[in-house]
Please model this.
Amino acid sequence: MKILAVCGMGLGSGLLLRMQAEKALRELGLEADLEVADIGTARALASSADLILTSEELAQQLGGVKPRIVTITNFIDLREMVEKLRAAIT
Amino acid sequence: MADGGATTGSAPLSRLLQPSAIRVGAFAADWRAAVREAGDALVASGVTEDAYTDEMIATVEELGPYIVIAPGIALAHSRPSPAVRRVGMSLVTLAGAVEFGHRENDPVRLVVGLAAPDSDGHVTALATLASFLSDETNRESLLSARSVDEIRALVVEFESRAASRG
Model:
């Protein structure tokens, strides 16, 4: 499955999201193709993703996109990422 | 760059976060002042030029306070730009908590500044920092630290423990 982590600038929060998602997926025993995009290019890439990971602020700016959006509040809390991914994927 | 171990992608946190980029108990009247502290700290350590500080503030004005990535913690940054001289980070603990307007993670007590000339030179350092901050004891030690040396020691010690765990 393809997961798109969306952040503002492509190098800060997006990286954190991807790192946490990698750890969470390992814990859940799942595999996924993880990509990071900034909010500008995310809309264009969204349709090729199965799931979008982002913060609530940016989710609102994404507008209507096809894939399911999972919003994360605390980017350094692995438990939140694990629980939300588990609920979204399994 | 054939040598994976020596590429800047794996530069450790202790190298990217220089003592001159750490500020303890800084006073900031509002979120712009808080981001400016982190930006000034990056400039002080030679990582960026002043324009980057304005860019970090503009990022929040444009996209909202999404940079408050965890309760009390803001990751100030902007895209790679000519105002970034090299990859580096700054760390500012605030004397008082500052509202950034984030619905869930306000107010902010810790601002991390991040400057990168590309998209991956800071991966290891950011991962170490995230790991360090995810532990509440570490956060508390950081916020109650009273000197740059104390903060520096916390970071270095965490890093060497993490490294020895493999």
Remarks:
- Chain A has a mean pLDDT of 93.
- The two ends of chain A are 12 Å apart (CA to CA).
- The CA atoms of residues 51 and 68 of chain A lie 5 Å apart.
- The beta strands of chain A are 2-7, 33-38, 51-54, 68-71.
